[in-house]
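Troubleshooting: if your tokenizer reports a length mismatch, compare your output against this known-good record of 333 residues.
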Amino acid sequence: MSAPDDRRDPFSGASGARSNPDPSDANSSSESPESPEPAPLDGAILSYESSPTAGAAAPGAMLPQGLPPEGPGGWRSNRFLDPDLRVPWGWADLLLLVIIWLGAMAISAILLAILFAARGVAWTEVQHSSRDLGFFVVIDQLIVSVVVLLYLWAQARLRFNAPFWSTLGWHKLEGSTWPRVLACAGFVGLGLLLAFCVQLASSVFPPKTKLPIENFLQNPEAALALMIMSVLLAPVVEETVFRGYIYPVVARTFGVSAGVIGTGTVFGLLHAEQLWGGWVQIALLVVVGIVFTWVRAAKRTVLASYLLHVSYNSLLFIGFALSGAGFRSLVHH
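Known-good structure output:
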């Protein structure tokens, strides 16, 4: 009779030795049974299949290289949690991010107001000048974006001792070179198609009042600066924050479906200030956010949703460059 097996689960972070093995068990131990495939998360709208070679690999084998180890019962040791959702931060970190974001917005606005005042431009004048207000918003968003990215970088590198981009969900698309190129082109085309559909729907249900975003588009210089930032900077920052940082925490807590819908809805509503009064336009932007998040979840990389985002915003920039008359019927974010 063989001694009882006192080995712990390989995902518990501990290991043990098997004492006094029975020779009769040699044949049975040489062939390990197939590991059961991890069940998908509750409410998942996507099918997550485990790697056929994963087996009983150590926890974190499919995670970004460089992530720190964690004790038993943590986010690493849950073998039924999809590797795409195994991130070392949680809800407390999301709350801290919100605090830092709001703090950066407040401090940046105060400093810019002081700077404009030093140039002889009072805040009341800024509010009534489309040019000054447009550049105020662009510079403010630029400062806040840099602060947020620096915070996330410092957290990944200094606190978690992990690589920044891969930890935040930026991975290469699967496949060889040409399939990846075609996939990228497909995402760009999908983003343009999505922007066209939103433009069409917005023209069918136009806002009854003037949208706040239109005040920034009245001055060509400010509008150009805003649209350049919307194409070059906003997609990188927003995809990193929403689809790379927020989505995994929401999805692993409430399920992938709730993660996709919840993250996309928050994304759309946070842009509602620009479209206040255009309720259909706000609803359309929520749908856009959900589509972005669904693509990120389906392809398991922020790169996919980024390509949609940058092509979606690029259509607005192209429209501005061609018409020079603003975008009354387009939804901007």
